[in-house]
Amino acid sequence: MSARFRSSRRVPAAVTACAVLGVAGLFLYDLAAVRAHRPGMGWRRELARQLERHTPADPGVLIGGGVLAAAGAALLLFAVLPGLRGILPMRTEHAEVRAGLGRKAAAQVLRDRVMEVSGVRSVRVRVGRARVGVRAVSHFRELDDVRADLDAVLAVGVGELGLAHELRPKVRVNRR
């Protein structure tokens, strides 16, 4: 299974559900009170008076509508975007088992492997979803030899990570 990990987003969903439930309960209680021939709640009468005085073109109404629209767009964006992009899915033999490896952990493993190459003084490794970026500084060997050794070490290292999708290495070697 190579499905990407997604965050559960329990807290935003719970907060939104509680807010909607509270507002709906308040409206339902007020509606039942009015149907029972009792006066509406004070906030509802005040809101009706305010709505009589203010038009949709008033700055306060526009700002309030903009804030509510931005909050709704943010909630929709949170619902659509995948979370946990920092976890790379790993190959598994069983369908019910899911395994993942953090990008920083994968970068650290590959960095340790690359530092073992002869002639490498320092290295920076960045692991993306599809690519491994390696910037190495060589100090006494030919750059082409170091690059060839780095390509070989990265090919083995990326294969040993056991990821569901193979990462393409991009190697840069230079001197100070």
Question: Could you describe the 3D structure shown?
Answer:
The protein has 176 residues and is an alpha+beta fold. The protein has five helices and five strands, in the order αααββαββαβ. Strands 3-4-5 form a three-stranded mixed beta sheet. Helix 5 links the parallel strand 4 and strand 5. It is elongated, with a radius of gyration of 29 Å. The two termini are 44 Å apart. The relative contact order is 0.12.
Q: What is the number of strand segments?
A: 5
Helical coverage, percent range:
40-55%
The SS-based structural class is: alpha+beta
- Which strands sit side by side, in order, in the main sheet? 3-4-5
Average of per-residue pLDDT values: 89
**Total helical elements:** 5
Strand content: 15-25%
Integer-rounded radius of gyration: 29 Å
Unreliable spans are none
Q: Could you describe the largest sheet, including whether it forms a barrel?
A: 3 strands, mixed
How many angstroms does the end-to-end distance come to? 44 Å
- Overall, the morphology is elongated
Q: Write the element-wise H/E pattern from the N-terminal end onward.
A: HHHEEHEEHE
